[in-house]
Design brief:
Blueprint (H helix, E strand, L loop, with lengths): L1 H11 L25 E13 L3 E12 L3 E9 L2 E10 L2 E12 L15 E9 L2 E10 L4 E4 L2 E4 L2 E3 L1 E6 L11 H14 L3 E4 L6 H10 L2 E5 L11 H15 L5 E5 L16 H12 L3 H17 L4 E3 L16 E2 L11 H8 L6 E4 L10 H4 L10 H8 L3 H7 L8 H25 L7 E4 L22 H9 L3 E5 L5 E2 L4 E10 L5 E12 L2 E11 L3 E11 L5 E11 L2 E11 L5
Parallel strand pairs: 11-12, 11-18, 12-13, 13-14, 14-15, 16-17, 17-18, 20-26
Antiparallel strand pairs: 1-2, 2-5, 3-4, 3-6, 6-7, 8-9, 9-10, 19-21, 21-24, 22-23, 22-25, 25-26
Length: about 575
């Protein structure tokens, strides 16, 4: 199918990759560990709960012994021995689990809520009075809880502003520490609270950087779309291994067992009745992936890690027998519908916007040789090549930003970025306005791109921002003043009403706030002023602006300005006033 081919093409074919690189064999340094007769084959460190008085750790180790013998398992926290357990192990692999309490812990907090204290937990195996092996994990002491897709850390609820992060490069095995640290730095610079690690396990440096920065991670298990029955055993074992490898990272607040198991998005194959029926049936009817595989993987995560929420799958609508559903994937304004349809969905089925974990639009990057080299042929580019090798979804652009309506490649490129930016701005502002009622957060698709593509990222494959990055950064500011999005086209004399809101993500209230709204057009303007207070971590409706579109044709702008002491915020919207046809 055309739409699906375009999506899978993004992950299979990219120009600009050295196709001689070898993905098999040994290609990175090998480490050798010198141990005694008993070695630590695996070590799992989880923080079940923590408060200012006590933190409770769940530890598990797999010990590999050369013979049956007695051992002492010693637990060391920040250099202090806190527990010693005597055990007898058999020849071969032995599973050992135990708990440890830590008094007066230094808690780990998400960015903006507190400090990111990290704790070193080491486990030593002692045989006949001598240390046989030692392993350590750097972790954070905190409690994570979810209530109807609203996340709390250490009892503090927060609205998660996130984006899906893709592999930092297509050949992920060659990604550097600097690549991962830069992704975290750019996420914080954007104003995000978290990243959804989309469809892959990232290099360890990403998790370490997120721990240090207080950036929350929603971790996908690397299952995406549909799989055969033979994968179940390997998937269950790898879920346990994922907890062993990553469970100690305090930044991870959720596991997702399977991304988009239905393997079809509404409208992806075009606006046909057949595609809509396939979408609905795929979500409602039982399937091997959604109903069997995902339950096995979810159960494996929950048994290995009882400290975090595990979601069976992402992007699945409410279906029998529970009619609950999970987070949602809706591409309003791209594959289907209009941008404002997200508001209509929230009004009719609020459960579907509890956590919108995929939304967005493609946009052409600046200074892209795979586009620019053919600029002289515009608009007769090799669109099929761009679809297959660079992920461009031509059939969608033909509807949203038609190339043949622009005189040059640069004009079209700029228009695609403007369209993406407006879509991102509208979604993020609306979801923030319904914070906790019912939305617990969002994750834009996507933050970055992995290779030279016409893709979804607000950052291109070289980390350079598109216009949507600035829109996302502005929409994610801790304090936001926002209005309902006015129509793009208005007619003189029309009456419009727009609700005005202030969103405060700070943990302190805003008193004596002044909001100014100014409607301007060629030759005139109208202004409104409002005052009041906004509570901590709250949303306040300021007023409803009622106005009549002026007789002057052309651009009509709405500018908002908020002043609360040292806190200031601005916003801007615009429409074009024109006489409707006929």
């Amino acid at each position: 199918q055309r739409g699906r081919r375009n999506i899978t093409g993004v992950f299979q074919y990219w120009d600009g990759i050295d196709r001689t690189w070898n993905p098999g064999g040994l290609w990175r340094p090998v480490k050798l560990f010198d141990t005694g007769p008993v070695r630590v084959d695996r070590l799992r460190v989880l923080c079940r709960d923590a408060d200012e008085a006590r933190a409770h750790l769940l530890l598990a180790a797999r010990l590999d012994s050369d013979a049956s013998r007695a051992v002492t398992v010693r637990t060391i926290v920040d250099g202090e021995v806190v527990a010693e357990l005597d055990r007898r192990v058999a020849t071969g692999l032995n599973e050992v689990a135990w708990n440890v309490d830590i008094g007066d812990p230094a808690l780990w907090w998400p960015r903006g809520l507190g400090e990111q204290h990290l704790t070193t937990v080491a486990v030593e195996i002692v045989v006949d009075g001598e240390r046989s092996d030692r392993r350590k994990r750097r972790t954070g002491l905190r409690t994570v809880a979810w209530d109807d897709w609203k996340c709390s850390v250490n009892g503090e609820r927060l609205f998660i502003k996130a984006a899906n992060v893709l592999p930092s490069r297509a050949d992920l095995a060659h990604a550097t520490r600097a690549d991962q640290e830069l992704l975290v730095e750019r996420a914080i610079e954007t104003g995000l609270d978290g990243l959804r690690v989309h469809g892959h396990i990232a290099p360890r440096a990403l998790y370490a950087a997120a721990d240090q920065a207080g950036l929350l991670l929603l971790q996908d298990f690397p299952l995406q779309w549909a799989y055969g029955r033979s994968v179940r055993g390997a998937a269950v074992e790898q879920a346990r291994a994922a907890v062993d490898a990553l469970g100690h990272h305090p930044s991870i607040v959720q596991w997702n067992a399977h991304n988009d198991p239905v393997a079809v998005a509404v409208g992806i194959a075009g606006p046909t009745g057949k595609s809509r029926a396939r979408y609905v049936l795929g979500h409602q009817l039982p399937t091997w992936n959604k109903s069997v595989l995902d339950r096995w993987v979810k159960r494996a995560f929950e048994r290995a890690d009882p400290t975090r929420l595990t979601v069976p799958h992402s992007g699945v609508l409410p279906h029998l027998p529970l009619l609950d559903g999970t987070d949602s994937h809706f591409y309003f304004g791209w594959y289907h519908g209009d941008v404002r349809d997200v508001e209509r969905l929230a009004g009719g089925l609020p459960r579907l916007v509890r956590f919108l974990s995929e939304f967005g639009a493609q946009a052409a990057p600046d200074d892209a040789p795979f586009l620019d080299d053919a600029a002289d042929a515009w608009p007769d580019l090799d669109w099929e090549h761009l679809e297959v090798h660079h992920g461009l979804q031509k059939w969608v652009f033909d509807q949203r930003v038609p190339p043949d309506t622009f005189a040059t490649l640069d004009e079209w490129r700029h228009a695609t970025q403007v369209y993406q930016a407006e879509l991102v701005k509208h979604h993020v502002e609306f979801l923030r306005r319904i914070k906790y009622r019912p939305a617990g957060g969002f994750a834009l698709f996507s933050f970055n791109e992995s290779a030279p593509v016409v893709g979804w990222g607000v950052l291109d494959w070289r980390g350079r921002p598109k216009l949507a990055w600035q829109a996302l950064q502005h929409a994610c500011a801790p304090v936001l003043v926002a209005a309902d999005r006015p129509p793009a086209i208005v007619a003189p004399g029309e009456r419009h009403r727009l609700d005005l809101h202030v969103v405060n993500d700070l943990r302190v209230g805003l008193d004596a706030c002044q909001v100014t709204a100014t409607l301007s057009w060629a030759g005139g303007s109208q202004a409104w002023r409002f005052g009041g207070a906004v509570g901590p971590d709250d949303v306040a409706k300021v007023a409803t602006l009622g106005f009549e579109v002026p007789d002057t044709l052309g651009r009509v702008g709405l500018d908002l300005r908020l002043v609360c002491g040292d806190v200031e915020a601005t916003n801007h919207y615009h429409s074009i006033a024109t006489i409707p046809p006929g």
